[in-house]
Amino acid sequence: MDHVAVALVFCWLGMVVAISFIEAPLKFRAPGVTIRLGLGIGRIVFRALNAVETVLAAGVLVTVLFGHPTVPALTLTGTAVAVLVLQLGVIRPWLSRRTDRVLAAPDGQDPPRSRAHLAYVAAESVKVLVLFALGVLLSMV
After folding, report:
1. pLDDT beyond 70 at 1
2. pTM
3. What's the start-to-end Cα distance of the chain, in Å?
4. How far apart are CA 38 and CA 91, in angstroms?
């Protein structure tokens, strides 16, 4: 089961890197993409990403628990899942409230900046490092 866990971890890692660190920032550089359009697209993309992440996290958790888990593997798995839960339960709702305000604001008027985005990026960064470490650790077993 360890090879399945490794595949799931690296799939999860690849999706997070591709969407959060490549697609999301680049979308706002495309000609004609306004803040509102980018936020609307981002909502859809991140909702899909988070749904897939939830499935992958469950798969990683099950395969690690039913494999031959070491304390470091359990710690890293728990950390990755905890970061995802934090993102989905706390940071995403905070970001959604901010997005709602931006989308509802009259044209040309953006509400004050929010730290929610920075919190999400920080959590994504931690998750990427943890998933990389977990994938490497599991592949060495």
Report:
1. no
2. 0.92
3. 11
4. 19
